[in-house]
Amino acid sequence: EQFDIAPGMKVADFGSGAGHYTFLLARAVGESGRVYALDVQKDLLVTLKREADKAHLFNVEVICTDFDIAADAKTGATKLKENILDRAIVANVLFQITHREQFVKEIVRVMRSEGKILVVDWTDSFGGIGPDKKSIVPKQKCRSMFEAAGLTFEKEISAGSHHYGFVFKKI
């Protein structure tokens, strides 16, 4: 609702996990759109694809990848073509990635001009909920990383009591 998803768009769910956002995106972009679910956990992707097929969401493609491993310059770690995505969601992923700047550059590489990226991540460690405190990426650091990669900050969104949310745009 806060991210301007429209039918026919090509979108990616970076760190899709079990597919919460993937399924929402697949319905929003419709049959004419495409959703790329990217994650390092192959078992989750197999289950996600099976569930998408059961739900007749045939516009979902799963890609097993490790965002910390650099690939060739043509396909990058995501294995996606350059300038292919209209939208991307990066939810609860930053705290898990070692080479964050490289990851952000890869996202920029696959985004089309005027494409938007929604970043949602943890604001803190909440005693057993969420990541360990030293892994948290503070709001300002997140914003700085994405802006340093050439993206424009568009807005902050409500992402719940334990998360922050930013929308960035590729110009």
Helix vs. strand class: alpha/beta
Mean pLDDT: 93
The topology string of helices and strands comes to: EHEHEEHEHEE
Helix content: 25-40%
Structure summary, number of beta strands? 7
Helical region count?
A: 4
Beta content: 25-35%
Shape: globular
End-to-end span in angstroms? Answer: 22 Å
Biggest sheet, in brief? 7 strands, mixed
Rg over C-alpha atoms, rounded to the nearest angstrom: 15 Å
Strand order of the largest sheet: 3-2-1-4-5-7-6
Uncertain residue ranges? none
How would you characterize this protein structure?
- The chain is an alpha/beta fold and about 170 residues long.
- It is about 25% helix and about 30% strand.
- The protein has four helices and seven strands.
- The protein has helices at about 20-30, 40-55, 100-110, 140-150, and strands spanning about 10-15, 35-40, 60-65, 85-90, 110-120, 150-155, 165-170.
- It has a seven-stranded mixed beta sheet, with helices on both faces.
- The chain is globular.
